[in-house]
Write a structure and sequence with these properties.
The complex is a heterodimer of chains A (about 90) and B (about 425). Chain A is built from two helices and two strands. By secondary structure, chain A is mainly alpha-helical. The longest helix of chain A is centred in the middle third of the chain and has 18 residues, at about 25-40. In chain B, about 65% of the residues are buried. Chain B has about 425 residues and is α/β, with parallel strands linked by helices. The chains are: A mainly alpha (about 90), B alpha/beta (about 425). At the A-B interface, helix 1 and helix 2 of A face helix 6, helix 7, helix 8, helix 9 and helix 10 of B.
Chain lengths: ~90, ~425
Amino acid sequence: MSDDAVNPEEVRHVAALARVDLTEEEVDRFAAQFADILEYFETLDEVPAVDREVDLVNVMRPDETRPCLDEALRNAPETEDGYFKGPNVS
Amino acid sequence: MSANIFITEETIEGDDDGPLAGRTVAVKDNISTAGVRTTCGSKMLAEYVPPYDATVVERLKDAGATIVGKANMDEFGMGTTNETSHFGPVDNPAAPGRVPGGSSGGSAAAVAAGEADLALGSDTGGSIRCPAAFCGVVGIKPTYGLVSRYGLVAYANSLEQIGPLAPTVEEAAELLEVIAGSDDRDGTSREAVDDAEYAAAADGDVDGLRIGVPTELLSGADEGVVETFWDAVADLESQGAEHHEVSLPSVGHAVEAYYVIAMSEASSNLARFDGVRYGHTAEEAGGNWNDAFGRTREEGFGDEVKRRILLGTYALSAGYHDKYYKKAQDARAWVKQDFDEALSEVDVLASPTMPVPPFELGESLEDPLKMYLADANTVPVNLADLPAISVPAGETDGLPVGLQFIGPAFGEEAIVRAASALE
């Protein structure tokens, strides 16, 4: 990617990273909008370095095994033997 | 006039007794209700039925409230006008033909139209205060950590809070009292503030109150909005308050910092919608995982959600992280510092909630940047983790204008008291 205005190829690349298919019409529209929005975001360059009062910490609970609830499968389109069933990985 | 306020109308009865017995509440449709569809205003979750209640829903039921429906909203909370909902826009009961504001537009409209006594919304960058201002009702964005987010479908975790909407300041404070308090199921909820009495603070006593008015939050605002704002400040001064102008130079960069952080968090949070465990699945979901994943998300997400996921992915991608995300975190730290300094000299800060009156339906849809800039006065509060309230301040050209009070962290009583003096 370059620092120049966003081109359709970059939009397609980011969409592929994010796993969102786009139509050609969406690619063109987003390319034009992203150029404006990212140019606006670039004003963050003017922000001075600031001393943070506190360090960032992760907030996580212990990773413990718990019984699987049948209810967790209720919204899944496909299940098998108490597991979610998804598409082939490759 | 009130059409399309609810995505799902269903009565969920609470306990027989409690502080909200006999009261009806509309709940924003990104807050989980066991056995009742929770869509987030998205095709992606159009048929999703959560197996559990959010903590705030449990607390509503324990308090005796009756939930009357799941309120319409911008898709996944992404929008300032309530027009990005898959289920269509809501008309503003207080200004027909105009937007109710977003993203908790259905919740504010339910209260304004009298379809519920009270409502719950969520506020990531102004999503409670904006619709409160546009619909002429009261909305509170609590201090980050005061209200549990367990069961809130996450969009930008570090910014969002659930909060109340109501016709009056006292009723909003009463609802806040019910939902506030620590929760061991939410690691970001705080313990220091259980058992506060917010409703009692709505006593209208502003004698000696020191109000700071950040000049940056007035520049660029609509003339009629500014005039209404100053009339309200004059009203408070006639009741014994005093105001002086303060400067918050950092807020000039708050909107871009907010959107970079919110979009980055959204790109990560919304990765869970892959069509495998819940949510929409593309009909032609053949092929491998990536093909099915990409097609499901193309079909399930609307424009604004795709825009934010892609921009968030871009901001976090190799080579751009330091340029956008890291700088946005610097700006966030600067905003916090600015607010802390200002609030060490005054009791509350005041500004117009929205710099403009409610848009006409359809007016802002084609220009996302214009919509983002409308959030200039609300997003700094979320970056600084502070509490704020929007209270009706009057009208300009017959359209509602909201006034926002911002308080120090866990200073909900101060903003409730100040706002109650304007009623």
